[in-house]
Amino acid sequence: MMVAKARAAPPRSVKWRRTRRSTPNKWSRGHGAARAGRSARSSSRFAPTKAAGSKGNASTSVEDGGVNVPLAMELWKRANAVCFDVDCTVCKDDSLDALAGFLGKKNEVEAWTTRAMDGSVGLERSLEERMKILSPSFDEVERYLATGGRAEQRLNPGIVDLVGALRDRGVAVYLISGGFREMALPVAKALGLPPENVYANRMHFSVCDETGLPRNFAGFDRTEPTCRQGGKPEVIRDLRLRHPYETIVMVGDGITDLEAAEVEGGADAFIGYGGTVARPEVMKGADWFVSDFFSLRAELRRYKVAFLGSGAWACAAAKLACENASGDDLFDPEVSMWVHEEVHEGRPLHETINETHENPKYAKGCFMGENLEASSSAEDAVREANLVVFCVPHEFAHGLCVQLQGRVRPDAIAISLTKGMRIRPEGPQLISEMIRKKLGVADAGVLMGANIAGEIAQGQLSEGTIGYRILENAKVFERLFQTPSFIVTLVQDVEGAEMSGTLKNVVAIAAGLSDGLGYGSNTKAAILRQGLSEMRSFAKKMFPTVRDETFLESCGVADLVASCYGGRNRRVAEAFAREGGQRAMEEVAEDLLGGQKLQGALTAGEVHSVLRQNGWEDEFPLFDTVYRIAVTREIPVDAVTGFMSSRQSGR
Ligand SMILES: NC(=O)C1=CN([C@@H]2O[C@H](COP(=O)(O)OP(=O)(O)OC[C@H]3O[C@@H](n4cnc5c(N)ncnc54)[C@H](O)[C@@H]3O)[C@@H](O)[C@H]2O)C=CC1
Ligand SMILES: O=C(CO)COP(=O)(O)O
């Protein structure tokens, strides 16, 4: 939650800015946010980066940076309203300076503009002095606007696109100018903004008695807040009263813009713009200082995706994500992937992946896309990510989460593709829950479903189910994974989806045993039926909120069918049964899977520990049987159909 603004309206002197308070909650967000203090986090993205340099009439070389870039970026991405200053921000020049140039009074006026913008005199005084010097007639203003002052030629590079992008995603855009409406309205028009979104001063003109037409300058409207110091925050406070905006960001080049984010009810973040003039006081005080609008555009709503894991499913899912990320403005096109380091054919695996964009050991033939960047460091892979896709075999999940504690952006949202659970003395924990808690991410859902990796890598039609808590986040992941051949459905049942995906691996072992024994379709159907029933009961005992309907989705019955006919658990169990259960299932898996990991046998052991702890073995005869055949090997392989006799005897 946001903390209240500590500072009252700033005094006229510029000195207050040097003693800006430092707020401890670096990552807070929401309505009425106090601007945060300097960030303790540092990363290549957040550290000041060299910008292309100042543009327009700027003379200083500009560095991007700011006192709290991560928070400002976050607020920028979630802003409901953005207020732009006009002169030297949206526009390459100051309209009064330009009008002065047109009237041959440039030097006198410019000196007063600079004094207002760097804060050495109050805005009202500066405006008064400049207008005294200019004193334009109505005709002169009109002629200026029709010639040198044409809005289209005054706009800074990138602003039209930026405003368009903001409006496309439903962000309200306002112009708040310390200049005059006469100059600001054509600018608003050029940006496609309605006049009511413009806050600026108004000129008065005397009226010719004979023609009734406006003639000479007769002062300006002193009731407009924009004509005085503290006027911009006043406008923003007023916007908040009239609209339910949770987050408002101010963008500008001057002290009066910075001030808009310094007071209670003002903007939640201030982005300093140095593309025209880079003012040292503004650079010093801005939450985020940029030298052009392109960096704001690039950051807008961009999700940076990182995959944790590089096995068969991780690679097939990354292929979907890379395809979408490269063509959808919502995402940063570069997708990073953590690769558990190993040497494959004499080379570090991540190097080979970076060269070929394919994982030759775990997902041969699955070209993920040129935009995939593999790394052997999990920390590096997630550093900039705000979308984390977790897909490691479940036995490695806890270790990886511990390793990454405090290394993931807290505003990140995660999705787990891992099928499995964690057993603790106090009971089972969903992997998604562990991710949320250990990694400290804002939300974690799951993507489950009938997703045999090789088939998805080939582009065969498949379905997936996203189990979510927060719909908005699920929609982002839907957009990341859905393709014409991978159809995603959303269910508000993380526990149901994740438990289904986890438990079906145990049933798939039973199906493989049945295949290995040479039984036909009827026996396998009985295993699937019993398995589905036990999956549902177990899931509900663990998590009472689990919904029956979830088992009818791809993550339920469809995954069960796919895995019991086509999966690795089935295949390994079949081979195990053919050998008469002579070797441990892990050994058989090692022979057959070339390093890929079997989840079903481990899960059978984990599920059994819960059954034993609660005395539930009899209620779950299939799960119990799989454990005794595949894990402890205490009963023969052909006991797999024993659950049928237990039904007969009413067990
Ligand atoms: N393969 C599939 O068709 C599907 C798999 N899943 C699930 O996805 C999860 C990941 O499976 P896959 O991507 O298929 O992997 P995989 O089984 O194909 O490959 C094993 C992965 O584990 C990594 N690894 C080995 N030692 C490790 C260690 N000490 N620490 C961390 N990682 C290590 C390997 O580098 C490799 O990336 C599993 O929970 C699985 O059930 C879900 C749907 C489909
Ligand atoms: O989860 C899977 C399919 O949805 C893959 O299962 P296997 O690990 O048994 O291949």
Task: Report the end-to-end length measured between terminal Cα atoms.
Answer: 54 Å
What value does the average pLDDT take? 89
Can you tell me the number of structural domains? Answer: 3
- E-strand count: 20
Whole-number radius of gyration? 32 Å
Strand order of the largest sheet: 13-10-9-14-15-18-19-20
* Helical content class: 40-55%
Name the ligand types. Answer: 1,4-dihydronicotinamide adenine dinucleotide, 1,3-dihydroxyacetonephosphate
Percent strand equals 5-15%
Proper CATH architecture of the largest domain: 3-Layer(aba) Sandwich
* Low-pLDDT regions: 1-61
Tell me the name of the CATH homologous superfamily of the largest domain. HAD superfamily/HAD-like
Q: Can you describe this structure?
A:
- Belongs to the NAD-dependent glycerol-3-phosphate dehydrogenase family.
- Residues 30-47 have a biased composition (Low complexity).
- InterPro entries: 6-PGluconate_DH-like_C_sf, 6PGD_dom2, G3P_DH_NAD-dep, G3P_DH_NAD-dep_C, G3P_DH_NAD-dep_euk, G3P_DH_NAD-dep_N, HAD-like_sf, HAD_sf.
- This protein is an alpha/beta fold.
- The chain has 3 domains: 25-93 and 154-202 and 221-298, HAD superfamily/HAD-like (Rossmann fold, 3-Layer(aba) Sandwich); 305-492, 3-Layer(aba) Sandwich (Rossmann fold), CATH 3.40.50; 499-648, N-(1-d-carboxylethyl)-l-norvaline Dehydrogenase, domain 2 (Orthogonal Bundle), CATH 1.10.1040.
- The chain is 43% helix and 14% strand.
- The chain is built from 28 helices and 20 strands.
- The strands form 5 sheets. An 8-stranded mixed sheet has the order 13-10-9-14-15-18-19-20, with helices on both faces. Strands 3-2-1-6-7-8 form a 6-stranded parallel sheet, sandwiched between helices.
- Helix 21 packs antiparallel against helix 22 (521-542), helix 21 (494-516) crosses helix 26 and helix 24 packs across helix 25.
- It is elongated, with a radius of gyration of 32 Å.
- Mean pLDDT is 89; it is low at 1-61.
- The structure holds 1,4-dihydronicotinamide adenine dinucleotide and 1,3-dihydroxyacetonephosphate.
- 1,4-dihydronicotinamide adenine dinucleotide (NAI) binds at residues 309-314, 340, 362, 391-394, 396, 417-420, 451-453, 596-597, 599.
